[in-house]
Amino acid sequence: MAENREVSMEKLVSLCKRRGFVYQSSEIYGGLSGAWDYGPLGVELKNRVKDYWWREMTQLHDNIVGLDAAIMMHPRVWEASGHVDNFSDPLVDCKQCKSRFRADQIDLEAPCPVCGNSGTFTEPRDFNLMFATHIGPVKDDGSIVYLRPETAQGIFVNFRNVVQTSRVKIPFGIAQVGKAFRNEVTTKNFIFRTCEFEQMEMQFFVKPGEDDKWFEFWKNERISYYDKLGIRKEKLRFHRHGENELAHYAKDAFDIEYEFPMGWQELEGIHSRTDFDLSRHAEYSGKDLTYLDDDKSRYIPYVIETSAGLTRSVLMVLSDAYEEEELEGGDIRTVLHFHPSLAPVTVAVLPLVKKDGIAEIAQGVASDLREEFAVFYDQSGAIGRRYRRMDEIGTPFCVTIDYDTKEDKTVTLRFRDSMEQVRVPIDELTSRIRAEIKNYRRV
């Protein structure tokens, strides 16, 4: 068997549309740039990635709690955080063709990359990336609020509430998954960069002086997480921010980058934020955000941040899972090698024929499996074509019910990655699939 792991963005976009993972938003009206809708399989995949992260960050740690803060917050929040003054991109326009570019991503001394004319760029000007809206019946300066451009600030402004109500002690973390909005000038590469997206963030509060230790701890924890997801190690790397790349709040920062079809791009950031955020919110709100430690010392905690994009993680999982295999005879099998915990469909139940009571047995097997797994039942078409359909959407296990099932109460269990098939007693099927998921390693 020859293998071809090449994947292009065009192939991914085509598969996602064809199989119901991702659709263009408002497609029947011509679509909306920078916005995407997740179809029946896409929403299942996205929810599983989110749930896996949530379990990893909260359930498996006894010192991390969760939060779900509001999307709209008091406008002073964004003044304190620095977003009003600093959250902008430098833009230039071509006066000839009216194309718009980020000034830091093109050579201003070169010709326009669209029309080819030289000397036609305007002077760079700042463009704030926050979406503004109004709250209340009257639109004036006093009614302006922003759609949050990140989820972190909702955690910081709730620091005191969490400490008072959850009995947490430093070091501890607050995790959150939620929508964020950025008025991106250039949205591109499918769901990688969009105006509306979801973040998976955890802010870990530590004692000043212990931040370097915890920074290294969370770097190791977060890169190990992707190994648990079955992501190929050679596709991941760290990128450390240089002095010119550091955000205004950061003492140190690393990105975890993944080699997407369009090249190496940021997947997740690990940032040492010092006490910048809590100090600023204490200043702007006038509230005491210090922490009283067990030794009676009082201080403003330092923060280690882990921040991953949920939609980027979905694109990473799709990119890493996609494979085209050339089988004997030249047939091409398109397969998504999802970790079974992430696959939108865990088990497909496939009766060999619809007659002679086979379908009724299969429906009973599907009903039993649904108690624990995401099950898809399919009784239409040749069994080989049904296997291929399941491979293309990443279903790790197929269960086939045939005439032997009526005689010996066994079924055929097929494995997506190897295409191996084994006979398993019906009453052992759930435990066998459970064990396969627990011990899964991608080869």
From TrEMBL:
Single Gene Ontology BP annotation: glycyl-tRNA aminoacylation
Reactions accelerated catalytically: tRNA(Gly) + glycine + ATP = glycyl-tRNA(Gly) + AMP + diphosphate
Aminoacyl-transfer RNA synthetases class-II family profile domain residues: 10-351
UniProt main location, coarse: cytoplasm
Ranges that cross the membrane: none
GO function term, MF aspect, one: bis(5'-nucleosyl)-tetraphosphatase (asymmetrical) activity
Similarity comment: Belongs to the class-II aminoacyl-tRNA synthetase family.
Protein name: Glycine--tRNA ligase
Organism encoding this protein: Sediminispirochaeta smaragdinae (strain DSM 11293 / JCM 15392 / SEBR 4228) (Spirochaeta smaragdinae)
Biological classification of the source: Bacteria, Pseudomonadati, Spirochaetota, Spirochaetia, Spirochaetales
